[in-house]
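To fix ideas, we reproduce below one chain and its tokenised fold.
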Amino acid sequence: MGKKQEGNGLWEGSRMMLPEHKIRIISDERETLRRVQPILDEQKQEEIECTLALSLRSHVRVTVVLFDPFENKLMSGFVTSIHTHSREFKLQWAEEWKWIEVDNIIEAYIV
């Protein structure tokens, strides 16, 4: 006799599920958990831009909260360059750096 399947047969009866199907089910579940990026008002956007400019001028450490579909990311460093035409800035920490788009920022503050 075969193994009795209980609950949802796909997970308990792993012999009948292909690995590709399991990966697809997991990725579909992740997509449904994605968040929508909040729309910031003009005042908040201006506050973020002023904070970045202050970090550039005064060479003070800034912390930015970046939007991510699954979980917000915190980055901290010094603004070393700002490109206003492409709305991005260069954040540097230790010996590393990264270009970040201003539109991906939810919050920025001086440490």
Residues 10 and 16 are 7 Å apart (CA to CA). The radius of gyration is 22 Å. Residues 42-110 form a domain with the SH3 type barrels. fold (CATH 2.30.30.100). The chain has a mean pLDDT of 85.
